[in-house]
Predict the structure.
Amino acid sequence: MKLFIDTAEFSEIQAAYEMGFVAGVTTNPSLIVKAHRDLKEVIKQIADLVDGPVSAEVIADKAEAMVKEAHDLRRLGQNVVIKIPMTPEGMKATAILSKEDIPVNVTLIFSANQALLAARAGATYVSPFVGRIDDMSMEGMTLIQDIAEIFTKHQIDTQIIAASIRTPMHMLQAAKAGAHIATVPYNVLLASMKHPLTDAGLARFMADWQAANQK
Ligand code: G3P
C-alpha cells in the first residue's frame, strides 16, 4: 500500500515529502479553506514539489462545468488528478475526462456499489471514506475489504484510496484490507512513526555510548 498525505498545508507536505514515504497528495475544498489558501495557487505549489499524483477537487455540480474546471486544474501540472464527487453529474464528468486520458479520483464513496460504478465510468482512483463511516457506528474498513474483493474478482484496475483516515490503526487496517493507497493526515503519519521502545532503545544506545566514551 502506498501512502499519500491528505492536507493542503504546504509545510506538512514538504516535511512528509522530505522523509521519503509520501507518494502523492490529496486535498479537498475543506482542507484548502482550513489552510487559508487559494485553490489554484496551492495546487500549483504542491504539484511543482511532488512528482506523484496530486488530487484537486472540482467545485462545480454540473458535468460540463466540472470538465471545464478539470481542464483548468490540469494546466497547473501534469500530475494533477481531478477529484470528482460521486453524483450522476460527477459520473458524466468522469466518463468524459477518462476518455481524454485525464486521471479522475472519485470521492465521497460510501458503498461498494458506488465504487463499482465509479470504476466502470473510468475512474483511475476511488476514495472510500473510512472515518466518516465509523462516525455512523458502522465498520468503515469493511467497505475497503468489499471494494478490494470486487475489484480483484473482476480484474478492475481502478485503485482504492482509503480516505478519511483518522488513526494509525486505520492506516494499518487499510493496508491489511487491500487498499492500494491510504491518504493520511500529517499528524497520523507522525503518530504512526512513533514507538516508545524506539525512543527508549535510542536513549539507551546514546547513554551507553556516552558512558563508554567519557572514561
Ligand atoms: O480524504 C478525505 C478526508 O479529507 C476526509 O477526512 O476526517 O474529514 O472525514 P475527514
In short: The pocket of SN-glycerol-3-phosphate is lined by residues 6, 26, 28, 31, 129, 131-132, 163-164, 166, 183 (CB under 6 Å). The first helix runs from residue 10 to 18. The chain has eleven helices and eight strands.
